[in-house]
Amino acid sequence: MHFSEQLSVPASVSEAWDFIWQVQRVAVCLPGCVGVEEKVPQESYLAHFHDHVGPYKVHFDLDVRIRDVQPQKSIGLNASGKDMKLGVSQRVDLQVALREAGPENTVLDVKADVEVLGKVATLGQFVVKRKAAEVVRQFAQNIASELKPHVTGEQRA
User: To which CATH superfamily is domain 2-147 assigned?
Assistant: First the structure.
């Protein structure tokens, strides 16, 4: 299943790029992510997910590998894992491209290919696709919210 989201964030390309490498902040943006362990800095991570898909509760440990890094332009990652209890496996290929849309505005193009196999897949393509699309959309919205400037007594000039 292929998904794409495009969002504009109120941050420079440099600020958005720095955010991408703050793994714990990015993890908070991922629906269902309950924690991330760094294996090799800026190369590999172990992400823990708890979520619901239809009537099923899933618990994934995803092995995440960073690939295709073009500083301040794009980053890709592969993630794969399995819920041993349900016998469900998941594979995700994610690509995020950054594009300047103004001095304090960046467009993020988020593209994801998701594959889900096993018991959850028996719910049907529609249910699984709807859930995956919801996760990608929420992830993009959460990133935009996380990058919004904090409101203080001062306004940006």
Answer: START domain (3.30.530.20)
